[in-house]
Amino acid sequence: MDNMNTNNKENSDFKCISDNFETIPDSIASDFKFPEAHNNLQDMINLSKAMKEVKKDMFCRLPFCNTIEAEAFGAIIKLGDNKYGPRVDKYLISSNEELADFESILDIDLSMKKGRINNVITAAQELVNSGEYVILNICGPFTVVSALMDPKIFYKELRKNPENAKKLLNYIEDGIVNYMVEGAKSGAKIISYSDSVGTLDIVGPRIFKNYSGISNKRIIEQYKSIMEGLPSYNPILHVCGKLSCSFENVDMYSQCPVDCNTTTKNYGEVLLDITNSNDADKNKTTTVLANACIKKTRSRLKNSTIYELK
After folding, report:
1. Which long-range contacts (CB under 8 A, 24 or more apart) does 170-174 make?
2. Looking at the predicted structure, is the pLDDT value of residue 108 above 90?
């Protein structure tokens, strides 16, 4: 692949197209019991394989919701069914007084050895061991916060006690980074990273520049730094297009176009080519991709171009 010198500002307003990729199709839902399929290890494995087959994808994906990280911090989650998946049942933190004392309320097992988060990591390992290519979806800090408390409480803390809010973000960041590293060790080919409620269009320029963007950037950089010491594991870090464009719009990162020299492959095939190349080069640093949606692995690559986050 050849780096291109083209300025990418024309791609800095990523359009997120709503689709049903996260929905469990009715054609396979009847083969599983819910909510067990959101929690039971073997059901997770079987459901991931079934969704890959029915969607004619090349990747198995885990998990099937965006509540895994928050639950690991203690969030109260209702697992739901195939149509209405895991979601917040009630907030763990209900006041700014409780937020000020968050360390006595929140709890995360940084070893990832218990709960659903452990089942997700184990399911990824077993899928890889059976010959599957795995994408592990991981959520960022503002998405976690929104599952722990009413966002109004957190934004009030940002205004009145910013140092305490930053302390909470740092605490969450440590857990997310560890989860990402454990995901890489599981053999996942791609760590897909997003923070859907922490992007520039959602939180605004001031919050993104001073809190959300900075927090997400720290996670990315800490993960990359740790992975430099683990050359045997080198998955792609695929940053959500909305988040990567948010970074670019405030000059935290640039999205650099790379020519893939192909007009016939779909996006997933290109991603596999990159991971296979990385596997062959143990000195290769983490490839961080941007300006694309990980849900579109079956779509034909446009203009022979992908984007790296630099």
Report:
1. 171/102, 171/103, 171/106, 172/73, 172/141, 172/144, 172/145, 173/141, 173/215, 173/218, 173/219, 173/222, 174/110
2. no
Measured distance CA(104)–CA(160) in Å, rounded: 21
Q: Report how far apart, in Å, the C-alpha atoms of 179 and of each of 70, 218, 247, 260 are.
A: 12, 14, 22, 30
Buried b (16+ CB within 10 A) or exposed e, 231-258: eebbbbbbbbbbbbbbbbbeebbbbbbb
10 Å CB burial of residue 71 (0-12, 13-18, 19+) is buried
Rounded Cα–Cα distance for residues 33 and 35 (Å) = 6
Per-residue pLDDT at 20 exceeds 80: no
In this prediction, residue 10 carries a pLDDT of 40
CA pair distance 24, 22, nearest whole angstrom: 6
Reduce the DSSP state of residue 196 to 3 states and report it: coil
